[in-house]
Amino acid sequence: MSGEDDLIGTLPSGFRWGVGSSAYQIEGAVAEDGRTPSIWDTYAQSPWSIDNGDSGEIACDHYHRMPADVALIKELGVDTYRFSVSWPRVQPRGRGGVNSAGIAFYDRLVDELLNNGIDPWLTLYHWDLPQHLEDAGGWPARDTAVRFADYAMLVFERLSDRVRYWTTLSEPWCTAMHGYVHGVMAPGRRDPEAGMAAAHHLLLGHGLAVRRMRELAPSETMFGITLNLSTADPATPSEADREAARFEDGLGTRFYLDALVHGRYPEDVLEALARQGIRLPSEPWDPSIIAAPLDFVGVDYYFGTRYSGVEENGNAVEHFGMPAFRKVPFGAPSTVLGWEILPHKLTELLVRIGRDYPGLPLYVTENGAAFADVPDETGFVRDDDRAAYLSAHIAATAAARQAGADVRGYFAWSFLDSFEWAYGYAKRLGLVRVDRETQARTIKQSGLVYRDIVERVRGGRR
Ligand code: BGC
């Protein structure tokens, strides 16, 4: 047995295992049953926004193939399916009553999962804001937080009798930073002040939604949020690099977790933003709303990061209105997204979150890799690279548990080869291959390896 196998063998038999997806990445059917455009439908139409001019118009056609897809999830042997609900499908104008035909899809999905012995793990927001709300100001507008809580209640009223795990937001950092500061994801704005307002309103929307849902929740219901987290090391021990790493850790990790857990934003981040003239539109009562009690935190991990405060030539890094620092690679092998493969950084991250924010159960809600898959004539992909990536990161998760982190589950990302946002379809992360021409699904070698790991741990010790 390898060290990796030994570590994986320490996971308890009751450990939760899942696969994940998100609505816009797999559903397709963008104009069916009353759905209106989301910001991603709009963004996909602007030239050069998405590789190859791709869009989620058809995606994996999951909207029409849902029962067969649930059967595949069952074949993967997992106990949990993490999916997201499309806001413009359920509440097409971003306000007002529920769209019955839209919510009916999730109603059927939840039943199908439960009938197959799979727990639904529902995310309310994975990046597909109704375009109507973006037109009204989007996340930089305070009203969007209120709208989000109303939408959450529409879904909650309909599904809380069967769904136990509720995640408000997936990766709010990505929405705020990539969507509103860097302009590389929908809605493609480049406005640091708007981006930080978006970050605040995302968290406010989360807090408002959790409070309202919890008032009506059956006692066993669990509420959480999923954050994309990373480690942030200084590239060298220099003062400039340590400051860069501290700021990025502040903006990416402490900004969210300090607010959610302690009800305050980190002072050093607020000061650095203020030096750029950026102030959060936070009302005095907002922090206590954001810090609504949580039952779990989802950690999405893909890579570790190192930062330098200076350019390679020694000049200061240019700021563009927002403190920004240079990423310095570790020199490790990368996936085809250029993301370095650093499983030990996942261990470090989980241990650190467990130590700095104690008492919060953690779940690795996303972890996975894009590789250049080569199918054989039957569509089967022998993706030993992806299988190795998953095993190494599952072992890293087990190592974090051994070191004291309260990690209770691991969800591989992703279930299917999907619409990969700005990368379009060229980058594949699925455990199941999707043929883009025929929509045929084939479980990859990594899916089989994952299934074996799950089976082995389940049969092991508790
Ligand atoms: C997102 C996923 C996406 C993955 C790879 C994550 O940050 O949550 O939706 O598929 O990155 O692009």
UniProtKB/TrEMBL annotation:
Family: Belongs to the glycosyl hydrolase 1 family.
Reaction catalysed by this enzyme: Hydrolysis of terminal, non-reducing beta-D-glucosyl residues with release of beta-D-glucose
Protein known as: Beta-glucosidase
Active site: 366
EC numbers for this chain: 3.2.1.21
SUPFAM superfamilies in alphabetical order: (Trans)glycosidases (SSF51445)
One Pfam entry name: Glyco_hydro_1
Keywords attached to this entry: Carbohydrate metabolism, Cellulose degradation, Glycosidase, Hydrolase, Polysaccharide degradation
UniProt enzyme class: hydrolase
InterPro entries (alphabetical): GH, GH_1_N_CS, Glyco_hydro_1, Glyco_hydro_1_AS, Glyco_hydro_1_beta-glucosidase
PROSITE patterns referenced in this protein's UniProt entry, alphabetically: GLYCOSYL_HYDROL_F1_1, GLYCOSYL_HYDROL_F1_2
